Amino acid sequence: MLRAFFVHLSENRSLRNFAERSAVGRRVSGRFVAGTEIADAVRVTQAVNRAGMSVTIDNLGENVTNPDEARHSAGLYQQILHEIAANQLNANISLKLTHMGLDVDEKLAHALVGELVAKAASLTPAGFVRVDMEGSPYTQRTLDFVRRLHRAPGNEKSIGTVIQAYLKRSESDIETLLSEGIRIRLCKGAYKEPASIAFESKAEVDANYIKLTKVLMKSGIYHGLATHDEAMIRETQAFATRENIARDSFEFQMLYGIRRDLQQRLVRDGWRMRVYVPFGTEWYPYFMRRLGERPANVFFIARNIMRQ
Ligand SMILES: Cc1cc2nc3c(=O)[nH]c(=O)nc-3n(C[C@H](O)[C@H](O)[C@H](O)COP(=O)(O)OP(=O)(O)OC[C@H]3O[C@@H](n4cnc5c(N)ncnc54)[C@H](O)[C@@H]3O)c2cc1C
Q1: Which pLDDT tens digit goes with each residue over 133-168?
Q2: Using CA atoms, how far apart are residues 252 and 93, in angstroms rounded to an integer?
Q3: To test ligand 1's pocket by mutation, which of 229, 265, 287 has the most ligand atoms within 8 angstroms of CB?
Q4: I want to staple 10 with a disulfide (CB 3.0 to 4.6 A). Which of 43, 51, 284, 285 is the partner?
Q5: pTM reported for the whole predicted model
Q6: Neighbours of 178 (CB within 10 A)
Q7: Ligand 1 center to residue 244 CA distance, Å?
Q8: pLDDT tens, 20-56?
Q9: Any alpha helices (H) in 51-201, and if so which ranges?
Q10: Contact criterion met (CB below 8 Å) for 129 and 120
């Protein structure tokens, strides 16, 4: 119920406008968001890299409403790729197709993301573009989009996508993506989906997460396992040990500011860890969703405000 309340708050326009413009808002969001500028993302990435973890940088924002906004968002990602190369960051980028104009002009979105993938592929070492997965109206479109770009010559190592374990279709989607050699990030899924297409109970989602993890780990392709759930991580580690799967043949992924203790422990124990570092002026909905996932975060944030 509290989660629904935060989802509701995350959609509130006036609260969002107020929060995104206020100094307090920006300070409070710092727990989960690098800042509003590219320089903030670079600074945080350098710190995370120094702690032995790689990064994926996300410019926060979803559905753009016109072609200029889409071009602007893609331009920011071009700059980020430039900064990754110039500063030798151990990082790639994560983006959402609706942020690149999927709903405005699909051809334009293709061209913009295609240019980003080409730029990533031209870097040394080669960069990588992760296409995040949005709500179920976008599942098939996202998979088709990624598969098409992945087929273009020179792109095969530089684009991948995300599969959500709560969707019943995911096992079959994984089979298709694997047959084409596409790298996958597996997560549980963050959107509200109907019971007709998604598992509803945590037990079912977790069971599917583990099942799909095993398929990915046996595939011989480098994938990302995105979760903060210690039970999922323990099962993955046990499976890797049992099946003699090398620790550098996949990576764990977590969000910036969440379970830092666990992130550091995994690195100390010799597992690969990538941190998802979001930045940008449109941080409010992302921040509210993180609070909703774990209401204890509200108390954590409140305590920090009192201390300032
Ligand atoms: C790197 C990364 C990329 C992602 N990309 C996508 C994507 O493209 N599409 C998509 O739909 N979803 C994405 N997600 C979100 C994901 O689907 C889940 O909503 C989110 O990760 C919470 O699920 P969980 O696996 O951590 O497990 P849960 O079952 O939600 O939580 C397990 C445990 O993790 C800890 N935890 C979880 N969330 C928090 C939090 N906010 N604060 C503190 N502790 C927490 C708690 O200890 C909790 O008990 C991504 C997640 C990560 C880590």
Answers
A1: 999 999 999 999 999 999 999 999 999 999 999 999
A2: 16
A3: 229
A4: 285
A5: 0.94
A6: 18
A7: 27
A8: 777 767 777 888 999 989 999 999 999 999 999 999 9
A9: 67-86, 106-122, 139-151, 170-179
A10: yes
